[in-house]
Amino acid sequence: MGKYKPLIGISVGDPAGIGPEITAKALSLPKIYEICRPMVVAEAEMMKDTIKFSRLDLEIHAISSPKEGFYQLGVMDVLDMKNIDAKSIRHKVVSPDCGRPSFEYVKKVIELDIAKEIDATVTGPISKEAINQAGFHYSGHTEIYADLTHTKEYAIYRFFKNAGRPI
Question: I need a labelling partner for 142 at 20 to 30 A (CA). Which of 28, 104, 123, 154 fits?
């Protein structure tokens, strides 16, 4: 039996942003599959459009559970959230229509990690303005993770007396 490769849930970030493209380009690299089993949490159709736009040689394998993934180079396993029509995405435009799925991608990877269905999470860039417009009032990923994992103390700094330096 070979070396265990962790299953990584990747939330791509804002559908109208650069996250889907960064994700697709990263998953076209052989090195990624040498060290882990990546699973994208997004829309399968959106990722197909991203691959086409980026001129990448990748296929999409839409899945509804991490257990269904192939996890092999050349095939992007996408946990298809089906929560935004790819044709409605207006790139480089901040909107609640993209803020909602962006938040839901992050929420889903957190839920999968808590349920021990994946080993770790990676997050693409979100638009804080878009997620707030969609009704999710967080200042960023850290606060989303803290809230959904019920973590109360997550960014505490202690200071040396009179030095003012964090430790």
Answer: 28
